[in-house]
Amino acid sequence: MGNTLLKADKIVKNFAIDGSLKSIVNYGEGHINETYLLTVDNLGQEVNYILQKINNSLFKDVDALMQNIKGVTEFARQEIIKQGGDPERETLTVIPAVDGKAYYFDGEDYYRVYVFIKDAIAYQITPSTEVFNSSAQAFGNFARLLERYPAETLTETIPNFHNTRNRFNNFKNSLKANLSGRADFVKDEIDFVLSREDYCGRIVDKIASGEIPLKVTHNDTKLNNVLFDKTSNKAIAVIDLDTVMPGSILYDFGDSVRFGCNPAAEDEKDLSKVVFSMELFEAYVKGYLSSLKGSITGAELDNLAFSAILMTFECGMRFLTDHIDGDTYFKIKRENHNLDRCRTQFKLVSDMEKRLDEMNAIVKKYS
Ligand code: ADP
Ligand code: GN1
Ligand code: MG
Probe ligand 1: pick from 69, 227, 341, max atoms within 8 Å of CB? Predict the structure, then answer.
């Protein structure tokens, strides 16, 4: 945001926040929005908030996006209160703008403010099977919560978000346009995608035929979208609710596995460190299925292991598309960042393809 305290101060004054802004720093490792930690002095007491500049080139209808988030967080809040929990810690809390809206538009950009969840940590790499198992339970419980949420009140914030066939067509269009000129240097990665076209329709077709149910899902279930208590290391809150929309729990399961069953970073350059961990997979399956007992269908279970391959493939294909487009979607911090990310995903896909039978056996064990 040009990052001056002065500009931030003007923005903060448009939210229902008491006190004066002391500092603003970049925060977190999200690829989509610009996230800042605010420190406000309120009568001698320091209070933190999360300020986000919403990525308006992706989220075209910010009003609808924020209505979704308000709806889901208020619903979660009531459930947490019923269970005797602390709603300001266990879900996001939107701080309204002074005009009562859930966001502020300064004529150029859209901003929102959340209560800062204190003494919490977001992991960029899975630190242990215990932590990963706890994230699985948190996402499983979140899926249960969303089962009771009125789906008809939600707007689809990014249409076709996990329609892998659509993603494949977008990839082919990017390849044709080759806006960055980079397509000529990534032939192996391009072939990797093209030779797996038959994966793309496997889940969307089953959703279309009714074999796999459409549910309200999170759609962006990577480990750093869960906050953990710094002391107990237990998952406390599922965050990043921009993509809560109708989808399949296979998307949520697969995306968590994609990110978390890898002992290295999503953008690790040394691919010898990137390996699919069966131990972490088992920890996730165990946690997720324990939370979803009685609600997951046979068709969902049959496709659970494959969904991990598909979501990893889809994400790698999206990184490659963005690399070829010239890095217009995901935030990057270095040259070829999206290509590095793509390569880790394809390494994981190759590993999983070899171990699909073992993965299915683990799903069976906990079904
Ligand atoms: P993006 O859409 O860019 O991924 P997120 O909403 O996931 O943005 O936020 C980025 C990071 O900021 C999260 O991974 C987490 O570390 C941190 N974060 C977001 N909201 C909060 C919050 N309310 N309290 C504490 N940390 C937060
Ligand atoms: C983005 O917003 P963030 O960083 O939690 C992306 C996900 C990708 C992920 C890959 C809205 O997630 O779909 O899987 O990066 N979110 C959006 O790390 O596109
Ligand atoms: Mg995020």
Answer: 227
CATH 3.30.70.20 is right for the domain spanning 2-117: no
Ligand 1 pocket residues where CB is under 6 Å: 27-33, 35, 50, 92, 114, 116-117, 120, 122, 224-225, 227, 239-240, 242
Q: Which residues make beta-bridge pairs with 215?
A: 247
Domain-by-domain residue ranges, the chain? 2-117, 129-366
If one residue of 90, 95, 239 were mutated to test the ligand 1 pocket, choosing by the most ligand atoms within 8 A of its CB, it would be 239
What is the rounded radius of gyration, in angstroms, for the C-alpha atoms of the chain? 20
pTM of the predicted model over 0.85: yes
Please report, in tens digits, the pLDDT of each residue of the chain (367 residues total): 555 788 999 999 999 999 999 999 999 999 999 999 999 999 999 999 999 999 999 999 999 999 999 999 999 999 999 999 999 999 999 999 999 999 999 999 999 999 999 999 999 999 999 999 999 999 999 999 999 999 999 999 999 999 999 999 999 999 999 999 999 999 999 999 999 999 999 999 999 999 999 999 999 999 999 999 999 999 999 999 999 999 999 999 999 999 999 999 999 999 999 999 999 999 999 999 999 999 999 999 999 999 999 999 999 999 999 999 999 999 999 999 999 999 999 999 999 999 999 999 999 999 9
* Residue whose pair of structure tokens reads 């391009």 in the numeric block: 190
**How far apart are alpha carbons 232 and 236 in whole angstroms?**
10
Indicate the SS3 state at residue 350: helix
Q: Do domains 2-117 and 129-366 have the same CATH topology?
A: no
Say how many Å lie between the CA of residue 269 and the centre of ligand 3: 21
CA dist 87 and 78 (Å) reads: 8
Task: Give 142 Cα–ligand 1 centroid separation in angstroms.
Answer: 17
Alpha-carbon 123 to chain mean position: 13
Question: Any idea which ligand is nearest the CA of 27?
Answer: 1
- The CATH code that applies to domain 129-366 is 3.90.1200.10
The distance of Cα 167 from the centroid of its chain, to the nearest Å, equals 17
